[in-house]
Design brief:
By secondary structure, the protein is mostly beta strands. Helix content is 6%, strand content 44%. Strand 16 and strand 17 form a beta hairpin. It is rod-shaped. Bound molecules: calcium ion (2 copies).
Amino acid sequence: MRSERSIFVLSLILAAALLVPGSASAATDIGRVAPDGAVLADCNSDTAHVTTPAAGTNPYVAPSAGVITEWRFRAEGNPGTVALQVLNVIDNSTYAPIAETPAAALAADQLNKVPARISITAGQIIGLRTTTASHGCYAVSQTGFTNHQVTPAPAPGSGPTMFGTGSGDAATNIAATIEPDADGDGYGDETQDGCPKNAARSDDCVAPSVKIDSGPKKKTKKAKAKFTFSSDDANAKFECSLDGKKFSSCSSPLKLKVKKKKGKHTLEVRAVDGNGNKSDEASYTWKVKPKKKKKK
Ligand SMILES: [Ca+2]
Ligand SMILES: [Ca+2]
């Protein structure tokens, strides 16, 4: 019983993983966070940071468009409050902040993971803005990278700003996960958007499945019949229709008795999830043939 239950839970998890619909590609991680135990530099309040590498691809630049659904920052000491910024790259020392997340109060001496919902397009760069004076906020020791900073930090939409060179062989302590946003509604399609093909909705619009798992013998002499059915959505409710009658709520197992004892019968079942999404109907047809009375 216990193992059946864990298999059921496992299959639900698998079903949920397979239910990531409409995603053109998988989530992408960009940026760098300090390794555990790294010694970080101090930084000042109201300072924005971005990073450029001496050569090669910039790991802070988004390779494709999407929505940042989480950003990460490894803190030592007291990091204060920090916001993630999305910036246009004008050149290697000029950046234009486009948007930023709300400033988050970060916990000391640990990897902070902050949920987010902020759009980014291919070629834009992530950076950070410190909003309180803090210790241990930005610099990841990183050979071949340059951490650029500017004070005061420019506000999003304020236009391009020259970022001075803060330090060489150091990189901004920030990373982010970008999920695809195929319908462009600003919700990451994998963990935030229950309706990734409809820009007007982000709530769950995916219909559950339904399956009739067992029923009576296809040819039987019995007027009584028993059915079991199931859905990939464990919280879905069921609706049944016998012989074309109106659907009404039902549950598994379902026991019924046909009135006409002779002939074909059909049971249709559908699943309805908590958001009113209905599955297609599953149907089961069987034939009832009564016992012939023995002639004496
Ligand atoms: Ca979306
Ligand atoms: Ca949507």
